[in-house]
Amino acid sequence: MRILHVSDCYLPRLGGIEVQVDELARAQQAAGHQVAVATATPSGAPEDEPECAPLPVVALSAASAPSPSPPSPSLAGAAFAVERLVTPMPWELPIGRSLAPVLAGRKPDVVHVHAGAASPFAWRAVHRAVHADVPVVLTVHSLWGTFSRAAYRALFAGWTRRPGGLVVTAVSEAAAVPARRVAAGRVPVRVVSNGIDLARWRDGPPAARRGAEERVHVVAVGRLAPRKEPVRLLRLLRDVEAAVPIRATIVGEGPARARMERYLRRHRMDGWVRLTGRLDRSGVRAVLAGADVFLAPAARESFGLAALEARLAGVPVVARAGGGVADFVASGREGLLGGTFPEMSAALARLAGDAGLRAGIAAHNLATEPVRCTWPAVLDDFAACYELAAAKTSLAHL
C-alpha cells in the first residue's frame, strides 16, 4: 500500500506527534508498505525545539518547488522520503505549501493526516485529499478545547459535504470524546493508540538500587512548554517535599526552562531538583532505571508517551485522571491518578512514603504489557481504518 503521512510538525522538531509520525512510518515501511511523509517543518529547527537527536530522514521537495539544497549528512539514509513543503514564515510557523503536487506525483492509496489542536497544514491536506477522492484517515493527537472544537466543527461540515472516505482516529479515549461530539456521527471515530517498541524500554540498564537513607527519586520527562504546565509540576514537587523527603530529575528542554530555573532558585529547590536538558533515549532509559516514581501532572495530556515509557520500564506513574495516560495506567495498579492538584499531591506523597506500594506496582508494570500500544496492534488497527476509508471512497462513487 502507498501511504502518505501528513503532519504540520515533524523531525527535527521534537514532540509527541513528531516522534510518533516518524516511528509509525518506519514501522509501516518495515512491514512492506511504500511510505512518505509530507510536512511544513523545515529540515532545521530552533535550538530550543528538539528534545532528542533527530532520526535520519531524506528531505525531498514537492514537484512544483524549487530544487532543494542537498540534505545534510545527519538527515540521510532513511527508508522513506520526507516532502518538506515549507513556506517561509516568522518563527518557522508550519503553514506549508499545497499538497496537490505530492498527491499527483505519489498517487497514495491513503492519506494519513496527523492533527493537533490547531493544524492548518493538516486541515488543508484533508480538504485537498477528500476533493481528490483519496481515502483519508485523520488522527487526532490532542485534547480539543473550546477553540479547537469550534474550528473542527466547521471543518467537518466542509469535509463531509462531499461524499468520500474520511475516517477519524484518536490516540486515547480522552481525545476521542470531544472528537465524537464534534463529528456528530458524520464520520466514524475510532481509538488507535500511539505505538511503542516494548523491547527498547524493557531491555534497558538494570534498575539502580537506592540506599535506605536516600531520598525517593521522582522523574518527569517532557517538553518544557507552557501547555505541559512545568511550573505546576514544580509546585507539586515542592508541596510533597515539605512532607516526604524526595529528589527530582526533570528531563527535557523548551521555552519554559528559564522560568523553571527562576522558580527553583526562588524557592531554594535547586539543591534537590535537577534539570537535565535534552537527553537521547539511552539517556532517558538511564534516568528511568534509577527512578522510584514517574510524575506526569499536565491536565491536557492526550496520550502521554513518556509516561508509557516509564510504565514499561517498571516505574510507578502518577498522572492526571481523565487524560490519555488513563488508557494504560489504572489507579492502584500501574500507578496512582488524581483529578485535582491536591489529589495529585496526595498520590505522589503516598507513593513516595510507601516503599511496599511502589515495589508492588513496579513488579506489576514489569510483568505486564499494554497490548494496545504495541506496534503489531497499532499497525493492524490502522490497516482496518485504511480499509474502511477506502471502502467509503468506493461507495461514494456507486
TrEMBL record:
CDD domains: GT4_PimA-like (cd03801)
Domain Glycosyl transferase family as annotated: residue spans: 213-340
Species in which this protein is naturally found: Actinomadura yumaensis
EC class: transferase
Lineage, opening ranks: Bacteria, Bacillati, Actinomycetota, Actinomycetes, Streptosporangiales
SUPFAM superfamilies the UniProt entry points to: UDP-Glycosyltransferase/glycogen phosphorylase (SSF53756)
Protein name, entry field: Glycosyltransferase family 4 protein
Pfam families listed in its UniProt record: Glyco_transf_4 (PF13439), Glycos_transf_1 (PF00534)
Span of domain Glycosyltransferase subfamily 4-like N-terminal: 15-200
Xref: InterPro entries: Glyco_trans_1, Glyco_trans_4-like_N, Glycosyltransferase_grp1
